[in-house]
Amino acid sequence: MEKIMVVYDGTGASELLHRQLCQRLAAEGIETQVRRFDIQRDSASGLCSASGIREFRGSIRHLAENIGDATMLLVHLAPVSREVLEAGTCLRFVGSERSSVVNIDVAEAARRGVRVCYAPGRNARTVAEFTVGLLLAATRSIAASNALVHAGSWTRELDRAPYTGVELEGKRLGLVGFGGIGRQVAQLVGGFGMDVCYYDPFPAQGVELARPMGLDELLSTSDFISVHARAEEGAPPLLDAAALGRIKPGAYLINTARGQLVDQDALIGCLLDGRLAGAALDVYAQEPLPADCPLLHMPQVVLCPHLGGLSKDMAPRSAAFVIEDVLHFLRGEPLAREYRAQGL
């Protein structure tokens, strides 16, 4: 009988996964042992471990000491490091609710014959819709005007001209990265009548939503630039000072991907000197933003606390993806979302 450990990391997502898994197994009449494990936090949570994992929550040591004879491990933010895999001598399957495997040592899992499944695309629609929301918020001063009304500053004498913006029709939207999220953004803005182009090292085939374009041309001709590329650990910013200097004057920059993709100091410089008309940011070089960050004092910038990938619909979808592959594994069927990296 398979012994499944579901790791609670303090988020509602792990609790939902546990509850829906138990309900589904009962409905399917599949006998397993399901155990909940509440992982402790420690000072290393969220940092890189010796195994090279990152963006995790919970104590590696605590999980390693308590994994016992579990044969299947289901996580959301919890660390599945080399130490955890070494301790889990009975492990055959790891399932993650996330759209990436940054908190799992996939090389060590592959070496030990442990299959890894995750949830790619779980929040693509969530981030895409949020991106379009930021696009509108930045160009039409929605956030600033909302704050003004709430502050009681809307009077008959108010000059509304500074709160007006530009329309999207006929303008060019440049997407830096054209994976699942970028493509959904292109689809969503189709009704605005925009000219949509994209830069990606691997141009899409048979896609009519947007046109491929070199990065320099995209930056110098786009009225709005939205970042959707993948961030490689330790890599320099894709949009460094030189790239930001090539942006069309008066353009807007939107970033819902990763803070390290954009040189934040150079971005601040472009906003201060007026090269950029504005920006809408959900990710930053340091999170949360430090109190002395100049972005906090720029009215032309919309700031959000890394919310783009979160929605009330996303957590059930993530759980459903993982549970689907748990059932496939228990039945000996092919897995739908197994992680397979090149060279592993």
Descriptive notes:
This protein is α/β, with parallel strands linked by helices and 344 residues long. The protein folds into 2 domains: 3-122 and 312-331, NAD(P)-binding Rossmann-like Domain (Rossmann fold, 3-Layer(aba) Sandwich); 124-303, Rossmann fold (3-Layer(aba) Sandwich). The chain has helices at residues 12-28, 60-66, 82-87, 106-111, 124-139, 142-150, 180-188, 215-221, 241-245, 264-272, 314-331; strands at residues 3-8, 33-38, 72-75, 93-96, 115-117, 172-176, 195-199, 211-212, 224-227, 251-255, 276-281, 301-303. Helix 1 (12-28) crosses helix 11 and helix 5 (124-139) crosses helix 7 (180-188). The two termini are 29 Å apart. The mean pLDDT is 93.
Summarize this entry quickly.
This protein has 344 residues and is of the alpha/beta class. The chain is built from eleven helices and twelve strands.
Helix and strand topology:
Elements: E1 3-8, H1 12-28, E2 33-38, H2 60-66, E3 72-75, H3 82-87, E4 93-96, H4 106-111, E5 115-117, H5 124-139, H6 142-150, E6 172-176, H7 180-188, E7 195-199, E8 211-212, H8 215-221, E9 224-227, H9 241-245, E10 251-255, H10 264-272, E11 276-281, E12 301-303, H11 314-331
Parallel strand pairs: 1-2, 1-3, 3-4, 4-5, 6-7, 6-9, 7-8, 9-10, 10-11, 11-12
